[in-house]
Amino acid sequence: MTRDRLIFAILSLFLLLGCVGESRLFSEREHISDYKEFDSNGDLKNDLWFYTFKPVEVGDQVYSQRALLVTALPEGGYTYKTIVTVTNNNPDTLLTELILTERVPPDLTRSLSDVSFDVNYTSIVKRDPLIFEWRAAGIGTGANTSFAYTVRTQLEPARAWVEQNVFTPDVVARTGNPLVSPIFVFFTNLANGFFLGLQSALGFYPAVAIFSSLAFIIVYLLLWNLARFVYYLLIAIKNRRTLKSAVYEMAGRGEQNNKLYVGVGVLLVVLGFGAMYALPKPAGVRDISEIVGAFSADPLPAAAAFLGLLGILALVFVAEDFLKGRALGRRYYEAVSRPEELQAAMRESETIERIQHLHDEVNDALKKVQVLANAGFEVGGETAKLEAIDGGLEQAEEKAMKKKLEEAQEIYIASRQKWDESKKGINAKVAKVTALQGEIQALYKAKGEVDALSIEAESLGVNVEAAKKKVQEVDVEELVEAARKKSKAGKFDEAAKAIGPKRRQLEEAGRAIADLLKAKKKLKPVEVSRQKFDDVMKMLVTSGKIEAAALVRRDGLMVASKLPESADKNVIAAMSARMLDRAEMVSGELGEGAVQYVLTESTQGRTISMDVGNSVVLICLTKPKEDTGFVIIAMQNARSKISKLFEGA
Predict the structure, then answer these.
(1) What is the distance between the alpha carbons of residues 398 and 495, in angstroms, rounded to a whole number?
(2) What ranges in 252-338 are assigned the alpha helix state H?
(3) Distance separating alpha carbons of residues 273 and 311, to the nearest angstrom
(4) DSSP E strand stretches across 200-259
(5) pTM for this entry
(6) Integer distance in angstroms from the first to the last C-alpha of the chain?
(7) Residue in 599, 617, 616 with CA at minimum distance from that of residue 608
(8) N or C: which end of the chain has fewer CB within 10 A?
């Protein structure tokens, strides 16, 4: 059984026993307990800063503690290394599962390429800001586990910034103690009563031998074999095999001649029980908890009891083999007569499995490289390397299927070596090109937003000449073309750094224009009770056709909403209000009259924005195939109710 299956079995047992408890630490501001600065190179300038934070209690004797090491880099910039340690100080409970969610402060970075990990994360919860999740299971009692990552950034270290921006992770810790479970206590009492009955009839040491053998029979022959049968049955269903094949695979191979084992078992039983009755018997009645102490005090009777136990188990195994043979027939014993054929089949299966695993790994890298190549980014001939390795693996798999295992293994080893030699370089290039592509997309996004804001500002008579001059200084197409040329020369980091300042210049211009627009617009304040608006949003969602609804002001502020917990309300409010503004500008320029509503359709669903007057906008989110006509009618009815609320305000 693999480690993952063992952990799953332990957790399942805890859940069945009902003894798993959960505690949670919600994110809160960290408190510094120690702070030190160092000059590591003797140039009279501090280049190392070390922070230790106070431990925070997650649950019963489970604590989370953070350490932060900031290092100045010779070439400029800094690295912020964070180490979060979760410790279980309770010796009586097992830390069965740990989920830690960490948010990287946006001031440090918003790019995944700037972050490296000592213990790799389980999943990315969010990309802006970057939020990572780590999961661990079966940590144990009195144990701790750590998660560490390093961020490369230009942000200068300052204690005031650390105090304001470093927060504890969100931690979920599950602990359990099966010994206090009512089910465990019930079976313990039942077993102890049975043992005392055996002891009164046969004596202490014979009772130990028989009780231990019965416990083994229950655990092994019944529970363990039942679990194995369920496992093989599920595998058979998954692989579309017959139930009969699963039973034979679970049963294993049979021994046709068990006479030797019967003789050994009988001999051990006679010797063991004879010695137990011949040796002095312990005085008084003892329960199960005293077995170890009794064995330590009387080693000879204990050894005799052990011999008797071995003899009983030998007979049990013979009986098991006999019953399997009677039930399953000749096929149960056939595997013994052809072990070489079985070993060859196993070698073939293992070889094909290794080839397929490497094949999947190479194919994954090849898909990433091809996606970047289709987007116009050269990755320095890496596609040809990967295709050559992929072709070699296909050849190796074909050889293995034809039983030519030695040739298949030689080709596999050669392909493995080529992949190991090029994997690091390929992954590094893919990461850098992906980061560059992200910068270009962010540049185009910033340019589009600032252009739309400029059009809106000019239509309202706002003077944005100063901001437009900054925008005109940025030639997006020229920047992108220069970045593509540098990427072909392998200068990915240089290309990304050239785009960054220009993108920020556009974003600053956009913020300046947005501030001027906000000052220009005069919005009627909303004085109606928020609860009344919330009731209208709930009415829309309860119709079953609408997944989420929100009422936002024209300046992007949320009035009321019924949105999923994972949704960023501020982003939805700002973007949806701006989307309707832009549609109205375009319609005005084309002379097509007033905009009734704006519908945006994506693979995940539809977003509909509708003006309801009083400088507010109604937004609804639906599934892709939902009836749009019904949703429009529902929104018009809601608009009427919202207007009445404003009239009565």
Answers:
(1) 43
(2) 259-278, 291-297, 299-328, 331-334
(3) 10
(4) none
(5) 0.33
(6) 69
(7) 599
(8) N
